Inverse folding.
């Protein structure tokens, strides 16, 4: 991937993100933060490669630490968001 | 299909699921499904990554995953809703730290094995700086939210911060010019960590929603920058999506406070005006009792409850739910008026009230509740202060002039439940307390609400 292609992806994704989230009700501000934070745990896939590559003890150690932290982010983030959203209910529609 | 192709297709599917997931998270009815779509995308991304030939040893990798999954699940399932701001801060920080570690490991590996090109060096420097600031900034926010960190910085903080920022940029240039001299790299990491602390240490409680949203955006940008280091399209896409959503939340929070991001981040420690605040109210403050409030509520046909951070501190959400049930039993309409920056993170009050099983249809945003105060018999303010301060609207010289507020003073009677007359975060007196139609109910938020409920049930 050339730098220009990477930059194109970056800019387009930012615009897509801005269009997606423009109007979000206050009720969802916290779940949106915790849910999107879980998505930013995507660093995990980079961490997996660093931790699994047999290069040096230092890079493996950094990789394993990154895997652990990113997994906390991913697992904890999606779980806690689901827990929160399960609490948001509406009587008019007859439950969640 | 070869392995690299399978990985690329898997990443494409994951990216689409992230987009759909984020879209779903923006609407109440689809939010839960959106979250699930995001999680599915993540699962696919992880699964296809494990096909990567570069991974030769799965032992350490599994160790990291197991530890992380256990800790993550434990934190997510054990946290109480009052502790949610701390947890979000913690997760933001972990995201930043993970990005630093990945970029660091990759950079060190390439330095050892080959020549570092400019793209890698620039991307690695950016990731380490952004990620490190996100990490320590989030840890400071975490400490402040737990109230275990009370230090607000020192006199020349903004000068030290500016110097550290410049030094960090110089070190980043060093990394790019001489990538093989690892001193630049470690120095940059250290400067980034220090900068995160200096940038957040002076920020007070009421600015926390802005800071949390901004750090959320940073954790996304850090992941995106890591994508440039690894030449990985999925990291770039997912990271920028999160960065954009965090940026929008930050913008919403800033608008709600009538402050710019720069105002918040470059704030000096807020100077609280000392002196007797009681003077500001003269003899105008009228104190009341739970029984008197109950009598007012018995004949009210519309009641608005305005919660603030004090509600979270007093853990009064369940007591408020009881009050609402009792009032609805008398035929009154009860709604909650929620200011966008009430509490310590975006949406803080909504989460607390949802925990107490209050339908979100009863939760009115500022624009929707403000026109209704004139038709409201009683407004009960619990643990909120600056967001109901009429001087923001009426006094152009007020430090918070121009900040949009909830116009509670337009309702028939305002009951303010508060421990004392002490000023809010902005350190300015609140003329609402001395207004003719305001009654002060002094005491702990939870106990006061329970007393009102008891008085209502007796009467």
């Amino acid at each position: 991937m050339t730098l220009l292609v990477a930059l194109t992806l970056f800019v387009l994704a930012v615009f897509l993100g801005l269009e997606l989230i423009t109007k979000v009700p206050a009720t969802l501000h916290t779940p949106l933060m915790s849910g999107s934070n879980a998505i930013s745990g995507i660093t995990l896939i980079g961490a997996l490669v660093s931790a699994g590559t047999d290069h040096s003890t230092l890079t493996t150690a950094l990789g394993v630490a990154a895997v652990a932290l990113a997994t906390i982010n991913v697992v904890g983030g999606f779980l806690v968001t689901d827990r929160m959203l399960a609490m948001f209910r509406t009587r008019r529609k007859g439950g969640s | 299909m070869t392995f690299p192709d399978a990985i690329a297709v898997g990443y494409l599917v994951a990216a689409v699921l992230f987009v759909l997931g984020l879209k779903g998270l923006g609407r109440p009815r689809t939010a839960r499904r959106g979250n699930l779509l995001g999680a599915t995308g993540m699962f696919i991304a992880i699964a296809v990554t494990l096909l990567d030939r570069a991974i030769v040893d799965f032992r350490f990798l599994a160790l990291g995953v197991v530890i992380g999954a256990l800790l993550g699940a434990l934190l997510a399932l054990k946290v109480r809703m009052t502790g949610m701001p701390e947890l979000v801060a913690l997760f933001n920080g972990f995201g930043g730290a993970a990005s630093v570690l990945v970029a660091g490991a990759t950079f060190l590996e390439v330095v050892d094995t080959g020549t570092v090109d400019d793209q890698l060096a620039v991307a690695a420097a950016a990731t380490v700086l952004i990620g490190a600031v996100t990490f320590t900034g989030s840890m400071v926010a975490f400490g402040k939210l737990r109230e275990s960190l009370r230090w607000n910085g020192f006199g020349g903080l903004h000068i030290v911060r500016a110097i550290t920022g410049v030094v960090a940029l110089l070190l980043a240039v060093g990394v790019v010019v001489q990538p093989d001299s690892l001193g630049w790299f470690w120095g940059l990491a250290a400067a980034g960590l220090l900068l995160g602390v200096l940038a957040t240490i002076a920020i007070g409680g009421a600015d926390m929603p802005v800071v949390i949203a901004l750090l959320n955006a940073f954790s996304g940008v850090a992941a995106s920058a890591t994508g440039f280091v690894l030449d990985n399209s999925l990291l770039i896409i997912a990271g920028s999506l999160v960065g954009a959503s965090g940026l929008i939340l930050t913008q919403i929070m800033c608008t709600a406070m009538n402050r710019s991001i720069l105002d918040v981040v470059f704030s000096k420690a807020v100077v609280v005006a000392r002196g007797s605040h009681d003077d500001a109210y003269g003899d105008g403050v009228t104190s009341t009792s739970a029984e008197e409030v109950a009598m007012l509520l018995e004949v009210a046909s519309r009641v608005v409850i305005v919660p603030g951070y004090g509600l979270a501190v007093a853990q009064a959400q369940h007591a408020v739910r009881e009050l609402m049930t009792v009032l609805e039993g008398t035929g009154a309409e009860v709604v909650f008026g929620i200011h966008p920056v009430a509490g310590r993170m975006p949406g803080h009050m909504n989460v607390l009230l949802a925990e107490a099983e209050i339908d979100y249809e009863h939760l009115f945003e500022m624009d929707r509740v403000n026109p209704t105060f004139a038709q409201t018999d009683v407004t009960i303010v619990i643990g909120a202060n600056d967001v109901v301060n009429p001087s923001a609207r009426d006094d152009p010289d007020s430090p918070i002039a121009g900040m949009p507020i909830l116009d509670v003073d337009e309702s028939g009677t305002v009951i303010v439940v508060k421990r004392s007359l002490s000023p809010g975060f902005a350190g300015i007196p609140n003329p609402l307390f001395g207004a003719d139609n305001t009654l002060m109910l002094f005491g702990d938020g939870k106990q006061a609400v329970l007393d009102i409920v008891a008085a209502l049930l007796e009467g």
Summary: The two ends of chain B are 76 Å apart (CA to CA).
